[in-house]
Amino acid sequence: MGWLVERIGTMNIRNSAKAIIINGDKVLLTKNQDRDEYFYLFPGGGQEHGETIHTTLLRECIEEIGMKVEIRELLHIREYIGKNHEHSTFDFNVHQVEYYFICNLVNAIHKTPTKPDSHQVGIEWFLINNLLEYRVYPKELRKYIIKH
Predict the structure, then answer these.
(1) What is the pLDDT along the chain (148 residues), one digit of tens a residue?
(2) Which of helix, strand or coil describes residue 115?
(3) How many Cβ atoms sit within 10 Å of the Cβ of residue 135?
(4) 19-50: b (≥16 Cβ within 10 Å) or e
(5) Half-sphere exposure of 31 (CA within 13 A, CB side)
(6) If DSSP codes are grouped into helix, strand and coil, which group holds residue 136?
(7) Residue 125: exposed, middle, or buried by beta-carbon count in 10 A (0-12, 13-18, 19+)?
(8) Which residues contact 83 (CB under 8 A, 6 or more apart)?
(9) Which SS3 state, helix, strand or coil, does residue 148 take?
(10) What is the pLDDT, as a whole number, of residue 81?
(11) Which residues of 60-96 are buried (b: 16+ CB within 10 A; e: fewer)?
(12) Residue 20 CB partners (closer than 8 Å, separation 6+)
């Protein structure tokens, strides 16, 4: 049995919870910057050992956007294998399963994020119908949200 635990430990597949926060005709995204320009992500991040996926999402929203959310339905699941994507130069060894949940803000009081990601420079609301004009990742989710 020890070999099985050892083998599973080397796979490094991680779960990630993401929030799709929609308010009317807008969606809230984290604003990030790389050497090219700005890019935008759905708030959320990696699940820690012993955390439920919902607890992960609640924690990550406080860390990245400084706001509490109410988690609603699961909208999308994405398997991200870094070596197969445009960011393979720095995500080559990343393999994660991302769970995208529709969320509501509990209140609109914005506090300073407690632990923003290293590339994060802010948060912004975007008109849903304009998502295709921006570097929003994952790209395929933009069209799905516009239809939702």
Answers:
(1) 444 444 444 558 999 999 999 999 999 999 999 887 999 999 999 999 999 999 999 999 999 999 999 999 999 999 988 788 776 666 688 899 999 999 999 976 667 777 778 889 999 999 999 999 999 999 889 888 887 7
(2) coil
(3) 13
(4) bbbbeeeebbbbbbeeeeeebbbbbbbebeee
(5) 8
(6) strand
(7) middle
(8) 91, 92, 93
(9) coil
(10) 87
(11) bbbbbbbbebebeeebbeeebebeeeeeeeebeebbb
(12) 27, 42, 75, 76, 100, 101, 102, 103, 145
Residue 52, judged by CB atoms within 10 A of its CB (0-12, 13-18, 19+), counts as exposed
Q: d(Cα 110, Cα 140) in Å, to the nearest integer?
A: 29
Which tokens belong to 3?
A: 């070999």
In this structure, the dihedral spanned by the alpha carbons of residues 71, 143, 48 and 56, taken in order and rounded to 10 degrees, is -10
Q: What pLDDT was estimated at residue 1? A: 45
38-41 vs 136-137, strand pairing mode: parallel
